[in-house]
C-alpha cells in the first residue's frame, strides 16, 4: 500500500514534479493557438500548415494516450513518466529550432508521443505514491495547480510571441523538463502493476493513430481534390475498420470494445464528441479571429480568452456538487446550450470589436456553459461502467475529446470555404468565421438534444466518483484513475 503523506517533504516533491509534468502538456495545448499567426508569417506557411501545427500533436497524443498508461503500468510509472518528460522536451526543442513548417509539424507529432507518455503518468504517480487518506487531497491539488497552468497558458503564450518570439512558446518546455525529471528520479518512488500484461496493443495504437492522421489529411487537403486526398480518405476508413477488428479480436486490446456495451457510456461519449469538437474548433479559430480580424496583439488575444478557464477553475467543483444533487442530465442538456449561445454571440466579434461589449459577454456565456457541463460529463462517464474500469472509461473519453477537436480543426476551414491564405486577409477570414461559429453552435445543440434523450437522470449509488474536482483545461475533460486499468 502506498504510504507517502502529503505533508511530508517527499509528498511535496512528488506533487511538484507531477504538476510540472502535466503543466508542460497543458501549457502547450493552450499557448500554440495564440502563436499561429506569427508562426505562419515567419515560416511563410499557409492555413493547412497551421492546422497541422495543431493537429499533428493531437493525432499522436489521442492515438497513443491509452498505450502510454499501459506502458507505465508494465515498465514502471516513474520510468515512463520521466521518459515522456524528456521526450516532450526534446521534441519541444526541435519545434523551437524548426527552420520550416514541415520540420515544425514533424516535431509536433513527436511532441504528442511524449505527451501520451507523461499525461497519464502524472496522475498515476500520485495515485500510486500517496497514502489513501491523502490521495484525494493530492489529486485535488494536482488538478487545481494544473488548471492554473492552463489559465496562465494563453497569457504567457501571447507575452512570449509579442516579446521573445513564438519559438519560446516551445523552448520554455526545456527548462521545465530539466527541473521536473531530476526531481522525479530523486523523490518519486517507482511503482508498477503486477497484474499488467507483457503484451501491448501496439498494432491497435498504430492503426488508431493512422486512421486519425489519414482522415485529418483528407479533410485538410480536400481543397486540392486530388487522388492523394481520395486515397488517404479511403485508407483512413480502412485503418479505422481494421482498428475496430483488432480491438475486438485482440487478447489485450488497448480499448476493449465491450466497454461500449453500456448504452450510457456510448451516449455520453457521443455527447463528448459533439461538445469537444465545438470547443476545439472555437479556440483554434477565435485566437486567429482576434488577431487577424480585430487586429489585437498575441498578448491581447491570449488574455482575452482567459475568462473561460478562470470560470472553470473557480466553479467546476461546485458544478460537480450540483450534478450530484440534480443528476447529470439537466446540466448536460443546459451546458451545451449556453456554449452554443456564447458562440452565436461571437458573431459580434469583427473589425473594431470592443472587448467589454462584444468579446467578454460571449466568453462569459461560453464559460458558464463549460462549467455547467464538464463535471457532470466526467461523472456520467465513470458512472456508466464498473468501478474497476473507471480509469479505462476516463481514458477513452479523454481520447475521444482530443480526436473530436482535431477533426474540427481539420474540417471547419473546409466547410466554411477558407482558402490557404485566409488568415492573411481580415475580410476573408471574417467571412468564414461567422459560419464556423454557427456550425459549432449547431453541433452543441445536437449534443444537448442527445444528452436530454439518452443520459440517465441519476447514476447508480455505488458508481465511481470523480477525484479531479477542479479542472481548468478547455480542450479536454479531466483524466480519472489509471487509463490503462
TrEMBL record:
SUPFAM superfamilies with a match to the protein in the record? MFS general substrate transporter
**Name of the molecule in the record:** MFS transporter
Location in the cell reads: Cell membrane
Question: Does Amino-acid biosynthesis appear among the keywords?
Answer: no
* Membrane topology, as annotated: Multi-pass membrane protein
Q: Which UniProt keywords apply?
A: Antibiotic resistance, Cell membrane, Membrane, Transmembrane, Transmembrane helix, Transport
Segments passing through the bilayer: 12-36, 48-68, 80-99, 105-126, 138-160, 166-188, 200-220, 226-246, 267-288, 294-317, 329-347, 359-384, 396-416, 436-455
Q: Which InterPro entries match?
A: EmrB-like (IPR004638), MFS (IPR011701), MFS_dom (IPR020846), MFS_trans_sf (IPR036259)
The Major facilitator superfamily (MFS) profile domain is annotated at 14-459
The lineage's top-level taxon is Bacteria
Q: Do you know which PROSITE patterns this protein is assigned to?
A: MFS
Mainly localized where?
membrane
Chain positions covered by the region annotation Disordered = 459-485
